[in-house]
Each structure stands twice: as structure tokens, then as C-alpha cells.
Amino acid sequence: MSDVERVLPLVVRVERAEPPTRTDALEAAARAVLVMVTTAEPDWRDAVDAWQGNRIRKVVRRARGSEWRRAAELPGVTVQSGTAEVRVYPPIPVDEWPRDLARLQVSGTELDDPAAPGVPDPGTPLVLLSPDVEMTAGKAMAQAGHAAQLGLWSLDPAVAARWAADGFPLAVRTASGAQWAAARRSGAPVVRDAGFTEVTPGSATAAFVFAPAPVAR
User: Fold this and answer.
1) Contact, 191 vs 141, CB < 8 A?
2) In the chain, helix, strand, coil percent, each to 5?
3) Which regions in the chain score pLDDT beneath 70?
4) How many Cα atoms are found within 13 Å in the side-chain-facing hemisphere of 9?
């Protein structure tokens, strides 16, 4: 376990005229985390492994215009999902943020879905957000990333490899009460937040279900 606490930086592109939808941003963030934790890039692998050996903190910031262009020039990977673009960077020590990321806004990122997201295709890996915990979009993006990461760790290596080869298809939805209860009963990986921001420490914020079955709402 590394003694240096690290954080995984994520930046969501939020242009004033055309912000992404909330669900697209959540799904892009979850996939971006999975892309980084499975990276084979030798310059990043040690940082990822050291971060995964400690608390898997994630911080989501937002950028637009020239801020986004500068952020996109730093080493990382941009993941797109529908209307959303999220760039993920290799983990860094918590007090060593690059200047072009440190200056970005971190709190109060709010996004909306103009219409209710559709029902995911059958068998789509699913991140469920708790119906009992209110979170900003930025906080929910981090929690979706946590859940996807815990879910990846829970899979058989061969299954995880196939999922990666497919590009980590997934959906993120806020659970109904019945869905949340079913996920908890099933033993699905559940995120319990450390409580650094927004939520009470220990709150169950998100869960991961790899092969969700239909649940009465």
C-alpha cells in the first residue's frame, strides 16, 4: 500500500451553450475510470497501481472553451458518451495538481436530463445510484466511477477482459426503491462514500450490477 495519497482527476466538458446531459456525463465518467484503471500505458501504470492500493479518491472538475483545450493537452484519455466528453488523467498526489487542472471549478457541477433516460438494453452492465442520496452531477460522476471500478474488480478476469474488449458498455440510472433493495440483497458491489464532500460518511451511494435482471418498480 502506497503512503502517498493520490487522486484520480476527471474533467467534464460543460460548454455554456451546449452542456451535456446528466446521464451522458455519468456514463462517460464511469467508462473513463474503467479505461484508466485498465491502461497498459507504461508511464501511467505505476501511478494507477499505487492509487488503487490506497483510497480510490476521484475529483471531477468542469471546463469549457480555452479551459477545456488546455486540459485536453495534458496527458490523459478523453471518453465520449452521447453529448458528454470526460477526460481522465493518471492519478496524482492530492497536493500536486497541474496548474491547468487546479484552476478549474470543482464544486456545484449541475447537469440535467431534458427527458427521462430510456431503459437500458437487456444485459447491459448497470451502475445504480441510490434513490436516497442527493448528489450534484459532479459528485454522482465520481460515485458512478467508484461503482464501475468496484464492479470491474468483482468480475472473473475472463469476463472483465471481454467487457474491456467491447469498450466497457454500461448504463447509469438512479434506482427505484425496489431496484436498490434488490441490488443490496444480491450482494452487488456497493460504494460507501468517505464523506469528503456532500454526503454523510459511510453513505451507500451507488451499486454495480453486471447482468441486471428485471425488477418490479
Assistant:
1) no
2) 35, 20, 45
3) 1-2, 212-217
4) 30
DSSP lists the bridge partners of residue 14 as none
Q: Would you state the pLDDT for residue 1?
A: 53
Cα distances from 106 to residues 58, 139, 152, 162, 187, in angstroms, run: 11, 10, 26, 34, 32
Global pTM value: 0.93
Cα distance between residue 208 and residue 212, in whole Å: 9
* Burial grade of 43 (CB within 10 A; 0-12, 13-18, 19 or more): exposed
Among 144, 3, 17, which residue's Cα sits nearest to residue 81? 144
Q: Which string of b and e fits 116-142 if b means at least 16 CB within 10 Å?
A: ebeebeeeebbbbbbeebebbbbbbbb
Amino acid at 5: E
- What do you get for the CA distance between the two ends of the chain, in Å? 42
Tell me, what's the pLDDT at 195?
72
Domains parsed from the chain with CATH numbers: 6-102 (3.40.1490.10), 126-209 (3.40.1490.10)
- Single-letter code of the amino acid located at 38: T
